[in-house]
Structure prediction request, 321 residues.
Amino acid sequence: TGQRVVKGQELLEIFSPELVAAQEEYLTALDYQKRLKGSTADVGAQSFELLADAVAGAKNLVSAAAQRLRYWDITAAQIDELARTRAVKRRMTIYSPQEGIVVHKAVFDGAHIKPGEHLYRIGDLSTVWVYADIYEFELPWIRAGQQAAVDLAYLPGKTFAGNVNYVYPFLDAKTRTVKVRMSFPNPDLDLKPEMYANVEITSTVAHDALVVPDQAVIRSGERNVVLVALGDGRFQPRDVRLGVETDGVVQALDGLREGERIVVSGQFLIDSESNLKAALQDMTTAAEAMGRGGHTDHQSASARRGQTPAEHPDKSAHAEH
Prediction:
């Protein structure tokens, strides 16, 4: 397991009575076909048509016997050698059908095997599949054919390029993700099965969009606000509707116009000062409303507690004011 093999390399020798019988059946069919071909010159015109049908049937028998040997993974070269030497082999050699890595080996010297049992699994790791879990909100921007990149923790600085070749049509109920399969060339076998990797899929959301720096957005949980600079030290809070975020910027779908100047640093201080001024203004307004709403006795009492006599014309006039 783990050994690299090439196409046509010997893997094992196998003995089976059925395999021996299949070889003998093939040689018998060859002999029958040969005898029929040799008999065509010794028959009359009336029997020639019937003999031709028999020769065609014998040819079909040879083809069927050869196909049965192929089902045993006997190569065409081995079948030709059997027809040439006419020697039935008790042990037949099984060769690797492709180049790759032995990822599973379930046969050993002297072991008994059953029909249909897997003896070897050989994986071609020159191209590998990488699976990634994509969240629901990312699905609108995932399509087959998109470019993808992978980097590994044990190879910092090296990036592998591939593409998305399949998006699974169902959702994982527990993780709320969809599995995406990507294909990556792997000539140096750096990408190994069962590894974890960081995957980045390139997706074009829009070719022309209005974007603002992500740090310029004040997120309260209920609304997203951007402070627009109006000039002369004045700022206006503007509710915005956000789109996709990427590379430190966020798409502004509504609330802003291209060319407007916005605050990207210290906006929380401005927002806090604005809230404080609004609170003080509310307190002042409330105090004035309370004064107009029935507290004149309190105000006149406060005026009478002053040190100035009421008959002094200037002071009384000031008190009334």
Q: What stands out?
A: Residues 294-321 have pLDDT under 50 and may be disordered. The longest strand covers residues 155-167. The chain is about 30% helix and 30% strand. The helical segments are 17-39, 45-71, 76-85, 267-292, 296-304, 313-320.
